[in-house]
Request: fold
Amino acid sequence: MPETVLLIEDSPTQALRMRIGLEQKGLKVVIINESTKALAAAKENAPDVVLSDVRMPGMDGFDLCKAIRAEGDLAGLPVVLTSATVNPSDEAKAQEAGGQGFVEKGLDAGALAALLRDVIAKGV
Amino acid sequence: MSEVKTLGSDRTHRLREMDFRRPMKFTSEQLRQLVHAHESFCRSASMRLSAELRTEFTMDMVANDQLPYSAVMSEEVPPNSLVVILRAEPVGTDVALVIDIPTALRVVARVLGGQLTGEEGSAVSLTELEMDIALHSMTGLVDALSATWSDLCGLKFSIEDGETSAVSVQLVPPSEPTLLLTFSAEMDGELSLMTLVVPHRSVAPVIGEISINRLDDEDTEHVGANAINGPLGQAEVPISAVVGSKTIEVTDLLALRPGDIIRLPQRAADGVQVCVGDQPVYQAQHGAVDGKVAVQILERRTHQRR
Reply:
């Protein structure tokens, strides 16, 4: 049974690119293009991990992470945030929001899949 | 559109939410037509590359988006890609077709008569020789793309150059609104993406023609629809699916025996033509449904514009 990744990404091209890479590494990927629909999708799909873009219209990745932590049903769901540019303050904000990881976009699919599996194994 | 009341004033201002990360320079109507045209492009490119590479190559239109040029090249495409720079004539501007390196390598291997395994196809750069072969083997794809844009607005593309670092390709200023048309490409069981990067200013001189051409089509179709809704619509039309044709001498015809093979000039990958009389109307592929011969329509054959 492959691990399920709930991918929250407003760019359809980037979402597809990540899905192709992760599926080739044996993960199942569910894409949600609007962050405001992410909580409902997390409850519906019961993913093993959430991989979310940081910069999104509506609700950014940090706020989404906090919202997941605040939901009783989803409190144990690991969240990894991703962004095109990574700086130390963002990594700190990700930790404060309750995230389990922060990665730069463009990471090799194999490395990203390994990181997600590691996060799933460790849990929240 | 939302309305807000400013503090200390009774005046109501109408504010429109603007997302400057997603500039909408291409209108929704232009976008709709571009997407439709590129769905046809995918079908013709799939047939063409399948024949040229002698393996099944399938392209599909999967996404479109509008972003500033810098965001496209730094975030939407992989940093190491084959960036095929296309010259657009007669306007003399550039657009780019971005292809994943593994896909480019798989194409090169097929052109050279081989096939890559998964590990071999995971390289992140191309040698000069691989670059030259990859660019050369993209000619068929670019010809199909050129035909699509020529029909849309009179643009023709030719390969100008190739690069392997997307961020180093500066076709237009970084803030230029740019359209991305993303295609999936499947070959040898591996799926990847190709992205056509169209800066607005590269097509601005001719993009208006898309809407005009559509109006022409609409007018024509409107007249045609009226005729079909009338008595003409009840007329029966014999259609035929034609695999191919050629002219032979009578003596050759009379000499034919069971088991003989007649070679036709049409390529197998081109499928069949659905004709009304001797006029080809649709491109199709043949198959079977419930034990009977059937054809599946792929696309309407384009008519000559005035």
Summary: Chain A has a mean pLDDT of 91.
